[in-house]
Amino acid sequence: MRKLIMGIVEFREKMLPQYAEQFSKLALSQAPDALFITCSDSRVVPDLLASTHPGDLFTMRNVGNLVPPATAEGVSTGDLSEASAIEYAVLVLKVANIVVCGHSECGAMKALSTRNAKLKTPNLDKWLCHANNAAFRLEHEGPLDDRLKPHDQLSQLNVLVQLEHLMTYPIVRQQVTAGALVLSGWWFDIATGDMYAYLRTSRSFEIIDRAMADRIIARLAARAR
User: Fold this and answer.
1) CB neighbour list of residue 81: distance below 8 Å, 6 or more residues apart
2) Is 165 a catalytic site residue?
């Protein structure tokens, strides 16, 4: 807690002067380009990893970067917090992109893999049901990358399942169909610091280096025309 408090003081004394004008403008409105859905894990820091600033990302974080699917009427089958964030991002902020970002060594994926009965975590157990399809696919279809540890294989498949869950929301499906919204799956390797993007053509996660970034941006630009 001391580190947290002193960090606030350091920001106030050293960083705030650089951001004062930006915060003044953001106090009136926000216009982020993307909804970034990722895990609560302390090692995943979206603004650091993407070199973003206040106002750039609308971020939703939870254990396992999960998106409970919606009914045909668009009502969440899980926690309303996630559904509310999706609705606000799409309908009010009108984001052009939604990114689901999983990561290596994810505690939620480890818990889903082991299902340790000794741990009294009824809420976590119930929450992780939204990743059950990923576990099913890993068992019956195999991993995207068999070089990874089993829980990391599960983590990658979980990203794809959560993208499918997003498409169960009518507002998301409508915007994607209209070409106004793009869904992307990313995966962060904590050990190396590398970020990967899922490519449907190769059915694999590939590292986002300069060349990959240029290809992704070109595809986004083509869709926007």
Assistant:
1) 62
2) no
Tens-digit pLDDT profile for residues 96-143: 999 999 999 999 999 998 876 566 888 999 999 999 999 999 999 999
Catalytic annotation, pick one of 12, 43, 219, 223? 43
Strand order in the sheet with 194-199: 57-62, 34-39, 97-103, 182-189, 194-199, 204-207
Query: What 3-state class would DSSP assign to 140?
Result: helix
List the domains of the chain with CATH numbers: 1-30 (no CATH), 32-224 (3.40.1050.10)
Question: Which of the residues 2, 33, 39, 56 is marked catalytic?
Answer: 39
Q: What is the DSSP letter of 132?
A: H
With b for 16 or more beta-carbon neighbours within 10 A and e for fewer, the 107-118 pattern comes to ebbbbbbeeeee
97-to-2, 55, 125, 198 alpha-carbon distances in Å: 37, 15, 30, 15
129 tagged catalytic: no
Could you tell me which residues are annotated as the binding site for Zn(2+)? 39, 41, 103, 106
